[in-house]
Amino acid sequence: MNVKEYVERLFIGEDALHTSISKVLQERNITPKSISLEVAKTLRLLVKIAGAKKILEVGTLGGFSTINFAKALDGVGSVTSLEIDPELAQFAQSNAETAGVGSQINIRVGHALESLQQLREEQETFDLIFIDADKENYTNYLDAVIKIAQPNALIIADNALWDYRVLDENDQSEATIGIRSFNEKIANDSRLETMLLTIGDGLVIARLK
Fold it and tell me: Is there a contact between 34 and 22 (Cβ–Cβ < 8 Å)?
């Protein structure tokens, strides 16, 4: 038994929703994966520790993280999720309805940067923001979400290790460069207190001062 198996057995267990969503994504040949089970549990804990009530998610995919956020709210609060693909948005909303949290979730379809600008124009603010979308735009998303984050808000991003490709200097793909740039930017932003947790595929957690 390795460390990952030990943690999953003792602290997490199986998750039928994660399994079913992953199966559908695989059948549709959609390469991005849902967040890992350990990241999902960590996100739920962070919502409750922070007392978050208004959550923003950049990147919906199958809705697994969206649903976990909504469940962590315990019926009080809302999750706004941004997704570019209408079919994925519909799939995620259907999963949310099945999970009994559909009424707490609002999925906006469109380019995330445009949706973020719309949210700013609507004077919306959020106390927890999760970034898990196209890696090339992570730094742009960070700039945009800081503008609609409440004081002391948490800003969280998945895939910060990018399957450890961030350590490979020979990997100059756009996605890897995007993650490296994001990590350097968020680590050195004086407005934020930040740490990278080496769980899942790397989870960055920052607090807006």
Answer: yes
DSSP 107-160: EEES-HHHHHHHHHHTT--EEEEEE-S-GGGHHHHHHHHHTTEEEEEEEEES-S
pTM over 0.85: yes
| CATH code of the domain containing 156 | 3.40.50.150
Burial-class residue 199 by CB neighbours within 10 Å (0-12, 13-18, 19+).
middle
Domain enclosing residue 88, as ranges: 3-208
What's the structural domain count of the chain?
1
Q: Which two tokens stand for residue 49?
A: 């520790």
pLDDT tens digits in sequence order for the chain, 209 residues long = 888 888 888 999 889 999 999 999 999 888 888 999 999 999 999 999 999 999 999 999 999 999 999 999 999 999 999 999 999 999 999 999 999 999 999 999 999 999 999 999 999 999 999 999 999 999 999 999 999 999 999 999 999 999 999 999 999 999 999 999 999 999 999 999 999 999 999 999 999 99
